[in-house]
Amino acid sequence: MNNQTKNEAEMSNAALLHEANEFVKKGDYEKFLAYCTEDTRWVFIGERILSGKEAVREYMKEFYLEPPVFSVDMTVEEGNSVAVTGEITLKDKSGTGHHYDYCDVWRFENGKIAALKAYVIEKKS
């Protein structure tokens, strides 16, 4: 077992998620995707469902034109699930920032992100 695998095995799922999200903040989406299972399934409630790592990659290309800016208010871990609340700002093609509140519920399998259920609400003011 190499050090990376050993360290990942010792980390909590919440710590793995926050580590992976550091790559999103830097715009290094491929390194983030390395934390996902091949068949990861992301459900954005009321909007879309992404099935598989390739679908998530395409979503990131479309919506993360610049790395998103996000904050975490709270993280709760229970078993293989991690719930995170916070705020996120995404820029559209014109460079206009759109601000959202979110609650993400992540499910892990063997130290990898297997699923996401995301509740995202745009801030109107």
Description:
It is a single chain. The chain has 125 residues and is α+β, with helices and mostly antiparallel strands. The protein has one domain (3-122): Nuclear Transport Factor 2, Chain: A. It is built from four helices and six strands, in the order αααββαββββ. The protein has a six-stranded mixed β-sheet, covered by helices on one side. Strand 1 (36-44) and strand 2 (48-51) form a beta hairpin. The chain starts with a helix and ends with a strand.
* Poorly predicted sequence stretches spanning 5 or more consecutive residues: 1-9
Instruction: Report the count of strand segments.
Output: 6
What is the residue-averaged pLDDT? 92
The biggest beta sheet is recorded as: 6 strands, mixed
Helix content: 25-40%
Pfam families: SnoaL_2
Protein name: SnoaL-like domain-containing protein
Organism: Chryseobacterium hagamense
InterPro entries: NTF2-like_dom_sf, SnoaL-like
Fill in the keyword field for this structure:
125 residues; SnoaL-like domain-containing protein; alpha+beta; Nuclear Transport Factor 2, Chain: A; NTF2-like_dom_sf; SnoaL-like; 6-stranded mixed sheet
